[in-house]
Amino acid sequence: MQHFDMVGVGFGPANLALALALHEQQNGAGPSHVFFDRQSKFGWHTGMLIDDATMQISFLKDLVTQRDPCSRHSFVNFLKEKGRLQDFINLKTFYPTRTEFHDYLAWCAEAVRQRVKYGSEIVGISCGPRAGTAVRSLTLTVKSPDQERPAPPISATAVVLAQGIRPRMPAGVACGERIWHSADFVHRLQRLRSKVNPRFVVVGSGQSAAEVVGHLYARDPTANIHAVLSKFAYTPADDSPFVNRLFDPEAVDEFFHAEASIKERILSEHANTNYGVVDGELISSLYRAWYQDRCLGRNRLHFEKFNQLASAVEGEEEVRVSLKSGTHAAERVIHADYLICATGYDSVSPEALLSGELRAMLVRDKDGRPMISRSYRLETTSDLQCPIFVQGAVEASHGLSATLISNLAVRAGEIATAIDRRIPKEDELML
After folding, report:
1. Statement: residue 28 has pLDDT above 60
2. Where along the chain do its domains lie?
3. Which fold would CATH assign to domain 2-164+348-428?
4. Which of 14, 159, 283, 410 has an alpha carbon 20 to 30 Å from 68's alpha carbon atom?
């Protein structure tokens, strides 16, 4: 069985930042490690790479700069190598397009490609051979999408889980030919046949929903779009300077050590920094488009406020979308060509891949959730001597930046250091 000091599960921006930290901090002489990802090549939210959509964070919050401003893997050095540094400076902006930032991430991924096995997925993690009662290695089951049987298992002393997020569809609604989640928006749109006066329904009140509405409106001057909002209107994101300090690396310490009641208040009172909110400039752009249509006697943008999606029935020629209003008793049916659900994502539980034996070793809080240390390691009983780190699904313990790019550089450095400290000497391994 092939053994690695560390195995990374998933290779999105979080584990990519870790790969860069390991590469730079140990210069190839540190713990042996490999990352597995089920995609055939690097990709990050490719279904929402709308040409003119911009990032909501500064380019300085790339994968390395806050950890090491001199890193050669910075966004600034990426621009330099691509010959666009001066041109970007002249834009006078901190916010590159999402497409360009994706190119930066792919450029970073190429730098550590020898540490990544694409097209391979970790589908299970269990205890390895024991030394008495102590578990000093983990066994990982690997499967390739094109293989009927799993590949030979591998062994690891440490594991870093970065399984990302999964699209969430409304209850009772499934994806189909005419019903999509916004995560697949660009891919589906590219396959559509041209049609005059296409009818779209977009469900959602957040950034992705607003971007989809704006793109559909600008893409086709004959398109008719119904934006279904659960509230009165799009709400602007709070990106004011003092509130943005919630995403500073130091804020993770403050949040982690805060009382449970304070944590709940922060997550609730400042959810409008990230959840169900829209960039203010995009809101203004949509309002201008709606007003201009009124001036010209057109009616292509419809904002269905205080509405919930009750049901959606897909047929060969259309989708029957039923809306339940919060102000009227009767349901309303919209006949559309396509329904797009920008209804958010769910984090993947850190327990999802763990065997029953491993789950039994997890230390849990009063609500039954796995406890996670400040260094992002799952708290376990003393029998499990193999650290399991978690990236992403730690918002309850580490704050609002847990699922965002904001702190990836610093977090990756912290986990890389923790891995180096937790890996035993070679003569201590008993496999």
Report:
1. no
2. 2-164+348-428, 167-237+275-341
3. FAD/NAD(P)-binding domain (3.50.50)
4. 159
| CA atoms within a 13 Å half-sphere pointing along the CA-CB vector of 330 | 2
- Cα–Cα distance, 207 to 213 (Å, whole number): 10
Phi-psi map region of 428: left, alpha, beta (phi>0 left; psi -120 to 50 alpha)? alpha
CA atoms within 13 Å, Cβ hemisphere of 264? 3
Tokens of 60: 């300085």
Amino acid at 131: A
Cα 206 to Cα 278: distance, rounded to the nearest angstrom = 5
Is the Cβ–Cβ distance between 60 and 13 less than 8 Å? no
Contacts 24+ apart (CB under 8 A), 285-292: 285/214, 286/210, 286/213, 286/214, 286/217, 286/234, 289/214, 289/217
pLDDT at 430 over 60: no
pTM flag (> 0.90): yes
Could you give the CA distance from residue 368 to residue 363 in angstroms, rounded to a whole number? Answer: 9
Two domains, one topology: 2-164+348-428 and 167-237+275-341: yes
